[in-house]
Input
Amino acid sequence: MTRLLGLAPVVNADTRLIVLGSFPGVASLKAQQYYGHPQNQFWKILGALWAIPLPQLPYAQRLESMLGHGVGLWDVYGACEREGSLDSAIRRGELNDFLWLQAQCPSLQAIAHNGFESFKHAKHTERLGLPVYKLPSTSPANAGWSFERKLAAWKEVFEAQGIA
Output
């Protein structure tokens, strides 16, 4: 199995909430973009929360808007072995350095895990002493949750942090 490297964090000093996925899927790695699979609902959810057409914007503008709202992106794994895109196929995952993240984001107030695989590592992010949330995965593999149900769950967390 090939060792895959994840994407760099998208954060700045004003990041108040970091959304942690598990590890980018094949489409995201190929595009070198977070949530690059066209069926992933991440950008659609953020767009709905902020009433802006994020999915239609170029990637750089999506990131700029997200950072402008105080939200950053990263993954729990910086590297792993995996065939395909399913979280269940992740092997030998190497966790990212969350202490480094906290040092880079002095305004960080909370951490939100996007999906079950990410949330499995909440014990590591809880060590930062910040609120930690479990969000329903925006992945197309999470077909058991409707878009509206996912949006409501994300809205609750974002409103609690003053970001929605």
The chain has a mean pLDDT of 96. DSSP finds seven helices and seven strands in the chain. The two ends are 41 Å apart (CA to CA).
